[in-house]
Design the sequence.
């Protein structure tokens, strides 16, 4: 996925079993943030930062949707524990993360494994990607500010 491309119409199923589509957000800017794993320190910091700034994001016409490859049960527990007010897509088949180009080989502590690259896509009111925050750019404790200040 690159700037100027349209996000896929079908994004996935959230923690409550709802279908999430790009057309659900027509007329709003969308923050589609992809994160590696529920309840890990960095992912929790990022989700809580977006939660704490959610009203400000809404007031600037943004909607927020999280995506990771954990299942609905994991997402529901994560969303409830941290009172997350936005949907979390359970991409267990890795179809969305693959389409977005954020699933691949990761190297950590000398070990190689497959995983999700923390990435945020910001789309305009028509679902066209206008901004991409890469893993090296994202500051998990300041992420909402990064989005709002672009």
Sequence:
């Amino acid at each position: 996925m690159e700037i100027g491309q349209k996000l896929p119409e079908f994004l996935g199923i959230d923690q409550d079993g709802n279908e999430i589509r790009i057309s659900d957000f027509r007329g709003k800017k969308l923050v589609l943030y992809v994160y590696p794993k529920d309840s890990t320190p960095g992912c929790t910091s990022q989700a809580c930062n977006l939660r704490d700034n959610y009203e400000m994001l809404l007031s600037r016409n943004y909607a927020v949707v999280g995506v990771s490859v954990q299942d609905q049960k994991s997402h529901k527990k994560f969303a409830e524990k941290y009172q997350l007010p936005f949907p979390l897509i359970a991409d267990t088949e890795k179809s969305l993360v693959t389409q977005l180009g954020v699933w691949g080989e990761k190297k950590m502590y000398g070990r190689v494994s497959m995983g999700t690259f923390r990435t945020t896509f910001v789309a305009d009111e028509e679902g066209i990607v206008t901004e991409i925050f890469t893993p090296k750019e994202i500051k998990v404790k300041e992420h909402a500010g990064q989005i709002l200040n672009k």
In short: The beta strands are 10-13, 19-21, 29-34, 62-68, 88-90, 103-108, 111-116, 119-123, 129-133.
